[in-house]
Amino acid sequence: MTTLDDALAALPVIAIIRAAASRHLNAVLETLAGAGVRAMEVTMTTPGAAEAIRWAAGGGLPGVAIGAGTVLDADAARQAVDAGAGYLITPAVLPEVIGEGRRLGVPVLPGAFTPTEILQAWSQGAAMVKVFPAGAAGGPGYIKDVRAPLPQIPLVPTGGIGTGDVPGYLRAGARAVGMGSPLLGDACADGDTAALAARAERLVETVRGSDG
């Protein structure tokens, strides 16, 4: 199974899949993978999330690190890992989920906003810390400022990040970025995978172009 570290080394982006229905989930995941996205998070608030994770982790998406998002308690953590999730993401610092993830042997990326919360998440055993909502926090400048006293903590800014913003966050020292609606658009609702593929391919080109 592809690890999160391996996936982010290939492309430092975690695609966030949050949907009101499960109808197009697998097609969306396949489209993202085909464009070169290697890390994907299916939120546990999405109908059919566990089934989609099980399909992806069971061989449906080779070369992709599949995780579960919006994991709010230990029960949800166990359900996600049982389905095959290789990592867990939370919207806040939730010691119960961090502890359960460590017990189950999977990385946890808790959501945090302030330096105090970021340090708390890290000290409790977070593998990386999701800075959320990053856009409201101040964008790449905020990430750069936080990393000055806390350079040892891998940060994954998420929330309000468009394709054109990604290089700035990476230059500021982000380990990766999380992208939801600016990348996904309405694909989970209307099944427009052609438009999704175009957005994803543009993202991959932008990120790889910034490496140069």
TrEMBL record:
It holds the Pfam family Aldolase. It comes from the Bacteria. Coiled coil: none annotated. Keywords: Carbohydrate metabolism, Lyase. CDD domains: KDPG_aldolase (cd00452). Signal peptide: none annotated. Pathway: Carbohydrate acid metabolism. Homotrimer. Belongs to the KHG/KDPG aldolase family. NCBIfam families: eda. This is Bifunctional 4-hydroxy-2-oxoglutarate aldolase/2-dehydro-3-deoxy-phosphogluconate aldolase.
